[in-house]
Amino acid sequence: MENTVMNTIIYWAKGFFSFNTVVIAAITVGVLFMLAAGTYVVEMNMDKTKTSSTLIEELLWGVGLTIAMVFLQNVFTHLYSTIASSEFGWKYSTAQFVVLFYCLYIVHRKVVLWFNIILPMYVYGLGIVRGQIGFDIAPILAILVIILISYTIYQQNDTLIDENVKYYSTLIMFGLAWWFVLKDIHHLTIVDIMCLTLEFLIAMSIVHFGNKKVRMIMKQYLNLMQEVDTDALTGVYNRNSFNKVVKGVFEFYSNNDAPLTMVMFDIDHFKQFNDQYGHQVGDKVLRLVADRFSYELVDRKAHGQLFRVGGEEFAIIFRGRTADDCEKIVRAIRDDLVKETIRVNNHDRVGIKVSIGISQLRDDDFDFQTFYKRVDDYLYQSKRNKRNSITVEGKVASLN
User: Fold this and answer.
1) What is the pLDDT of residue 80?
2) Where are the transmembrane segments (predicted)?
3) How does pLDDT run across 295-354, given as a tens digit for each residue?
4) What residues contact residue 28 under an 8 Å CB cut-off, 6+ apart?
5) What's the pLDDT at 83?
6) Among 86, 80, 95, 94, residue whose Cα is nearest residue 189
7) Does the CA dihedral 13-19-21-22 come out positive or negative?
8) What pLDDT is recorded for position 84?
9) Secondary structure element (H or E) that encloses residue 355, with its range
């Protein structure tokens, strides 16, 4: 018995510390990269053409995972073609588990969760249909464990990934459960399962370490980009970001039929806030306006991008929306804004009002500056109308 166990461990070690393992690792990392990068590129392109939808993105990940599973199986079956199927030649399963587990933590998609729920049931059911195995309670329990772990990770992946004890607990249980599902199909012993789970633990630990380093670098990069592209006081995009965004937006929407609308607004009598109550109150007013518009643009799913383009002046780029659509949205946000007041001293509170200009991109806008100047003119038209007004395509109306 001891010799059998030792022989199995030695056999596993020889397989693990081999050139094939290096090839497997390289291919697995490549598959992970292609999954993430390929899907990201497609999603970005869909976003630019305004055809992006949750359903399409979910389907993309489902197709990507399916292709990855089949690809890994075929590649590794070829690599281990000289090893009998009943022996230790199921290395591709470890690579597949790495992809599945990685995607559970990194890709917050329902299709990834369902993929991890359905796949073990499919594999076990296929084994029964093919007559490889009979019905047994152990693999059924293992499938339930996989489902439970997958659902737990889906619900709490943001917290579990940074807690090593919980992360590695789910990792080990996930690997053990999967190998128990495959135990009778591949005629694995308990020692085989322990060795293969250790292999999965080592492989996933390397991936996890690399992912943490990449996440740290990306976080630093995003923080740096945020400092460059966002306004320090209000947290919304700044003029620098506005200048970068509008160039690409104009080029895209000037060459297709989808509508593009820009809104510009500024805070009425803002200088009085600073002169009468001090710059701290002025800063508080700016933050309140930015927070109100930022929150409601997201809450209303308005597809609007907010920028602070001047001292008290803001702009919103609405992709795929007409001027009439945007007027309704901006009026609603403005109506909520004027209900709020700011405390300026121990007793007094003051309200905030804004002037607004709105226009939609036209066929005769030969460059962005033409478009921008028209919206800016509409804003000043509202200000000349005793402020607290809105001008939409040249038509001025006072706001209550």
Assistant:
1) 58
2) 16-38, 59-76, 88-107, 112-129, 135-153, 165-182, 188-209
3) 999 888 888 999 999 889 999 999 999 999 999 999 999 999 999 888 877 777 888 999
4) 72, 95, 98, 99, 203, 207
5) 45
6) 86
7) positive
8) 42
9) strand 354-360
Count of helix runs (H) and strand runs (E) in the chain = 13, 8
- What is the rounded distance in angstroms from the CA atom of residue 94 to the CA atom of residue 188? 14
- Token pair, residue 178, equals 């999967």
Q: Which tokens is 385 given?
A: 């109308």
Burial environment of residue 366 by CB neighbours within 10 A (0 to 12, 13 to 18, 19 or more)? exposed
Nearest by Cα to 291 from 367, 223, 234, 364: 234
User: Which stretches within 162-238 are classed as H helix?
Assistant: 164-182, 190-229
HSE-CB at 137 with a 13 A cutoff on CA atoms is: 0
Q: What angle do CA 33, 224, 286 make, to 5 degrees?
A: 125
**Torsion angles phi and psi, residue 193, rounded to 5:** -65, -40
Which H or E element spans position 306? strand 304-308
Which segments of the chain have a pLDDT < 70? 1-54, 57, 76-92, 210-228
Tokens of 331: 């009026």
The DSSP symbol for 277 reads I
Residue 66 in tokens: 């399916």
User: Could you tell me if 234 and 336 are in contact, meaning their C-beta atoms sit under 8 angstroms apart?
Assistant: no
What gap in Å lies between CA 364 and CA 335, rounded to an integer? Answer: 33
pLDDT per position as a tens digit, 370-393: 999 999 999 999 999 989 999 999
The DSSP H or E segment spanning 337 is helix 323-338
Return the pLDDT at 51: 45
Q: How far apart are CA 192 and CA 199, in angstroms?
A: 10
Alpha-carbon distance values, 296 to 16, 121, 333 (Å): 54, 43, 7
d(CA 151, CA 324): 43
